[in-house]
Amino acid sequence: MNNTTLSPLEFSQTSLQDFVDCPRRFELNVLQDTLWPAAHSAPLLKFEELTEIGSKFHQLCHQFFLGIDPDLISSSLSDQEISRLWHSFLPYGKSLNALPCYYEQILRIPFQNHFLVAKFDLIVQQTDNDYLIIDWKTASKKPSRSILANRVQTILYPYLFQQAGGELFGRAEISPAEISMQYWYPLASDPEEIFPYS
Q1: How far apart are CA 113 and CA 42, in angstroms?
Q2: pLDDT tens-digit readout, 78-106
């Protein structure tokens, strides 16, 4: 890297996790805008398939919170894996549906001449002083709590919401003690993993 001044960058949980896991990958992906490592065909195809499933599931959840009839959504599904995810999600989605919430919300804040940015799957106001950030995960196996606790997303999302999310709910400020982050795995036997933020 030369010493030229960087243009402002947007750091997401993915790019920051790259930095934690492999600074060289971060340098190539973020600073030099180069894809690395080079993809191998078989793992890449599986990765693309899983990414597509995750994307479709997120779209279904978005449609649900937009108010589209769940039966209509169910009748449109032909993929068995997507259908399994959807039917696991429905009871949980219905339990949240009456609460004030924002779905697919992007928050962005300045940070040391750059920006932190996150796209939230769902932010729910459970009570006047209780906010839950929910992130859908479509992996077939839920990682251990310690692994999730050490993910950049577990730190970044509550921080960003605390800094910039108050205006969504008409609040000047939301205290850290009012915020929790939940990962939700529809295919896991115990789908929820919740992390209080303070």
Answers
A1: 40
A2: 999 999 999 999 999 999 988 999 999 99
